[in-house]
Each structure stands twice: as C-alpha cells, then as structure tokens.
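Quick one, T. Sequence first:
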Amino acid sequence: MGVATWSGDAVTTSDSVEVTRPLSGAQLRDAYIESVQDLTLGLVRFRDSAWRIGPIELLRFGQERIGRNYLEWPIVGGLLARPGGVWRIEAKDGAVTATATNHRPTIPRPLYDISHLQFHQLATHLYLLRLLDNEPPPGVEAPREDRFRAAAVDVAFCLTLARLTGRRRLRRTLAITAAYHVACWTLLGRTLGGVVLRERVVSLDGSRPTATQSLLRFAVLPLSWITRRSVHDEIARTTVIRD
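Structure tokens:
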C-alpha cells in the first residue's frame, strides 16, 4: 500500500511490490506508460516527455535517466506540478519500488489530498501490480460458479439492507451496494457471500485491495456482466481465491 508524507509544500509518495523476475529500466518505463494510458482509457497520453490530455500538458518531465534496473525523471512542471522533485522506479532485491520525491503540486494540499493524490496512488499501485501479470496467482482461484453464488448472496443482502432503510429506491440501493462492497473488500477482503462460499478478494500480490482499488473494481463490475469476463479484476489487478 502506498504511503505519502509531506514536508512543507512538497509531498513524497512511495509504493512497492515484490517480483520474482528481473526487470530492466526499459521494461519498467514501457509498462508504466502503458498502465497509465490503459487506466485513463487513452485520454491521458505520454508524449514529448509529458503526460497530456489533448493539448493540455498535465505533468512534464526533464531529461530521462534510464539504467539497467531503474528509470528516473526530474519533474519540471505542467498544469499539476511546479518544478522540483523526482519520479523514480527501481527494481532491486526482489521488489519494484516507485517513488515520487519532493513533488510540489500546484493545487492546495487539502484539495490535492482528496483528488490528485488518490489518483496518483491508485495509478502507481495498479502499475506495480501490472508487473505481476505473468506470475502465478497468490492462491487457488475460486471457481466461477462459486463466485456467482457468492454474488447472489451479496445481492440479496444489499436488497435486504435497502428495504430496512425505507422504500427501495434505485439510488439508495446502489449507494448501499457500493459502500458495502468497497468497505468489505478493503477492510476484510471478503463480503458476506465470500464468507459463505469461503473465498476472498486479493490484489495480485496477495494483499487486500486499497479503497480506491476496491472502488474501481466495483465501478467496472457491470462490464463483467456484459462481457461475461472478469473485466473488473483485470482492470483493478485483483483476483478471487479460495480461503
């Protein structure tokens, strides 16, 4: 899970994941760019050493430094940052660590903490988990039919909760369902259905999902119903394993 510490108007964030294979600086770079572009559905693109939405330059980097097992960019400006700070990704001692040191946001800290910081930490965490795509799952994956049964238990439970709070209106039911799933996945790794079917949700590194990761997983869930594929797990970098 990522951590963030402030010193004056500068923030340092860091997150890491254990890996079993060596990764070069070029591999770290390419996976990072692909991960952010995929997460933003291609709206944010990396071009000319900067993250952009169309002509708007969100974050500009200086001269890239790339080594055998690391990638480093100085932060030199853009809409979201003042000059100063370094973004570094390094594969060392069986782990990949991504650190933004002394990043200086342009927006006030209270607003930054609830907006851009949350997206930055989510994007960083999903990028690191993306590096585990070719590694074995962190446990025995739950059968598809058991996952459907667990989901049915959760739907019934959420409808019951909605009825207990008054008339079952759609917005109220959706809010209860979202809060229930996000809280259960983040705090416990399992919902009531998961307890009954003895299964739990984990990130690809075996840890419990973060709050923003759980929220993303829930938001994308309808796509899984449409495609009949676990798209929400693919995007949120999670899986469901037997307990």
